[in-house]
Design a protein that fits this description.
Chain B: Required for the activity of the bacterial periplasmic transport system of putrescine and spermidine. The structure holds two protein chains of two kinds. By secondary structure, chain A is mostly helical. Chain A contains 13 helices and four strands. The longest helix of chain A is centred in the N-terminal third of the chain and has 33 residues. Chain B is an all-alpha fold. The chains are: A mainly alpha, B mainly alpha.
Chain lengths: ~300, ~270
């Protein structure tokens, strides 16, 4: 060793963060592990507990919450069980509303993503920025703004009447359409961004080759482009569908009693002494299970796609 | 060849997309300057509803809610950014290890669980451990769900910084601490600032989770606005909304600019 100088530490390779790995990760493990993962597991346990009056629980295990969700046993609980449609139909409505919103987002989001991805690179960032800004604006404020715009004597109806397109206001608020519009408006950027990322990677030489072989532009879109950018489309649909399914603000503010969705149903179970915490936990568990099934189906499809 | 990239009608749909996204925000911003006390008719330009927010009958409630929102956002963004920096160093700079993909999944867990489920689970957890809901429970919940938002830009920046800078510092006998504070952290700064700003906005914007874990009598701006809106949209709500809208746009623009500058100084 020349001059008795120790070899510089980095001669051992790397940057020396290895030994600190555990202390560096402890805060993350503690925060998310204790304050999110553990609570979600606890919620599953809670859904099997017995409801006490005044919104409390007794630590006696029972299937009562799930039974209440799926079966109707009459007012005193002694009649033979028949299927309880109240909650199942709320779930069905949520799936339908989220599905319609997802389809609407896809029909508008795909052309938008395509259009942005085919601009010059400098222009793309500007367009993308314009699409993402509304996402960062408070969802509550956006939903309230939408309600203000579409209400019976709001600016939209006044404009349509002023233009002579309508002779009396179109009642939008409290309809299924208003909720669908609200969900569409809330999550549209989630559809555009992943599709944009997929289209940006798409090799346009494929389209050109097909065009040289006399394929029309819509044939190219259907037969070549859509299969190639499918992962982006699937990701976008999931990013819109999953939050729409459990949405609370759009159905609560833009809808009414006839547009009740899962989010409001869960919320109601935790309000005051009328609440039923185990039942609310059970609904949340059922929602979470549905979301996990969607995510796992997508992960499996993605794996299959990679192997091909 | 332009042909295969061009589809008729896609420009119109893109403009329609922007119209849908911006029309409600623009309309509320315009009406927040309305002099009329009715929300339907236009009575000329005025700042009276902004004055009303600051001095009107509800001003004390909004001031308290704004104070809670801002302090929680500052604390949650600071804590989650610090946690995310530590996590990013371990995930990106310490090679492979057992449990790495599990840790990655854990970091992203707040993004996967539907918000209403997080809200329910967190409320039940605080109730079981006997922690009274209030400022502290809101803060804990916010730090937790802000971590992935702070982590993503920080990790993206860190993985773009080559190890040679730190190694050079270590070769010149900097301690690991010196190499981090004097070399690595300044290089990471655009990612850190970007992550901090995003975490700040996410905290400031949250309604659903806060509404569950806030407890009685405690309000943040979104929960106070929600309470007011339940009785109908009033002009002062539009003034507050416009201010919050401006704050969000400002922060996102800042985050975007910091990232842009970061890319120009890409290492």
């Amino acid at each position: 060793m020349a001059g008795g100088v120790l070899p510089p530490p980095s001669n051992r390779g790397g940057t020396g963060w290895g030994p600190l790995r555990v202390p560096l990760l402890i805060p993350t493990w503690v925060m998310i592990g204790i304050f999110l993962l553990l609570p979600v597991l606890l919620m599953a346990v809670y859904s099997f507990l017995t409801k006490e009056f005044r919104g409390g629980v007794i630590w006696d295990f029972t299937l009562a919450a799930y039974d209440q969700f799926f079966f109707d046993r009459g007012l005193f609980g002694d009649e033979p069980p028949v299927i309880e449609w109240t909650y199942i139909s709320i779930f069905w409505r949520s799936i339908w509303q989220a599905g319609v919103a997802t389809l609407a987002c896809l029909l508008v989001g795909f052309p938008t993503a395509w259009f942005i991805a085919t601009r010059a690179p400098a222009q793309r960032t500007v367009w993308l920025f314009l699409i993402t800004i509304p996402y960062w604006v408070n969802l509550l404020i956006r939903t309230v703004s939408l309600k203000f715009l579409i209400r019976d004597n709001g600016p939209l109806n006044e404009a349509l009447i002023g233009l002579g397109l309508l002779d009396h206001p179109l009642p939008l608020v409290n309809t299924n359409l208003a909720v669908q519009l609200g969900l569409f408006y809330s999550y549209l950027p989630f559809m555009v961004l992943p599709i944009y990322a997929a289209v940006e990677r798409y090799n346009f030489a494929l389209s050109e080759a097909a065009s040289d072989l006399y394929a029309g532009r819509w044939t190219i879109l259907r037969e070549i482009v859509l299969p190639m950018v499918r992962p982006g489309i699937v990701a976008g649909c999931i990013l819109v569908f999953v939050p729409s399914l459990g949405a609370f603000l759009a159905p609560d503010l833009l809808g009414g009693a006839k547009t009740y969705m899962i989010g409001s149903l869960i919320d109601e179970q935790f309000k005051g002494s009328q609440g039923n915490w185990p039942f609310g936990a059970a609904i949340a568990v059922i929602l979470m299970t549905m979301v996990l099934m969607v995510l796992m189906a997508q992960a499996r499809a993605a794996l299959k796609g990679e192997r091909k | 060849m332009k042909g295969v990239r061009h589809y008729p009608g896609f420009l119109i749909l893109t403009l329609g997309c922007l119209l849908v996204l911006y029309a409600p925000l623009v309309v509320v911003t315009i009406y927040s300057f309305n002099d009329s006390s009715s929300i339907t008719s236009w009575g000329g330009f005025s700042l009276r509803w902004y004055v009303d927010v600051l001095t009107g009958p509800e001003s004390a409630r909004f001031a308290a809610a704004a104070w809670n929102s801002i302090t929680i956002a500052v604390l949650a963004a600071t804590a989650s950014t610090a946690i995310a920096v530590a996590a990013a160093l371990a995930m990106i700079r310490s090679g492979r290890f057992r449990g790495k993909s599990a840790t990655y999944a854990l970091i992203n867990l707040p993004l996967l669980v539907p918000e209403i489920v997080t809200a329910v689970a967190t409320l039940i957890f605080f109730s079981v451990i006997g922690l009274t809901t209030g400022y502290l429970t809101i803060l804990i919940a916010h730090v937790t769900f802000c971590i992935p938002f702070a982590y993503l830009p920080i990790a993206a920046r860190l993985s773009g910084i080559e190890e040679v800078y730190e190694q050079a510092a270590r070769d010149l006998y900097a301690t690991r601490t010196q190499a981090f504070w004097l070399i690595l952290l300044p290089l990471m700064m655009p990612g850190v600032v970007s992550g901090y700003l995003l975490a700040f906005i996410i905290s400031l914007d949250d309604f659903i989770i806060t509404n569950f874990v806030k407890g009685a009598g405690m309000e943040t701006l979104p929960t106070a606005i929600f309470g007011s809106v339940k009785q109908g949209i009033k002009p002062n709500i539009m003034a507050i909304s416009t201010v919050m809208l401006a704050v969000s746009v400002l922060f996102v623009s800042l985050s975007y600019l910091v990232n842009r500058i970061g890319q120009k100084t890409r290492t």
